[in-house]
Write a structure and sequence with these properties.
Elements lengths: L1 E2 L2 H14 L8 E2 L5 H14 L21 H22 L2
Parallel strand pairs: 1-2
Length: 93
């Protein structure tokens, strides 16, 4: 699991392992809106794990109010699609 908030991620991981005793779930810090965080995540994952069996994208963004314009659309697309494509490509090499 790659999450912005490592403490909340660890809590979720512990709950899942409690329900699924044979689960092997690892937690790493990642903020897909932060280039430095992405670079650090890719480096850590490449060093720690030889194979990634499952990579699930659940990143998303929320905006305040009901405003939705081109800037919000671009930020959402970059966060939900482009950055995660970059992470996937870097981890597949």
């Amino acid at each position: 699991m790659a999450c912005r908030n490592i403490e909340l991620a660890q809590k979720s991981r512990d709950e899942l392992v409690g329900k699924f005793k044979n689960a092997s779930i690892h937690v790493e810090q990642l903020d897909v809106t932060d280039k430095t965080s992405i670079e650090s995540f890719v480096k850590v994952v490449a060093e720690k794990y030889k194979v990634i069996d499952v990579l699930i994208n659940n990143a998303g963004v929320a905006t305040k109010g009901d405003a939705f314009d081109g800037e919000v659309a671009n930020f959402t697309f970059a966060t939900v699609f482009m950055r995660l494509c970059r992470i996937s490509m870097e981890l597949s090499t």
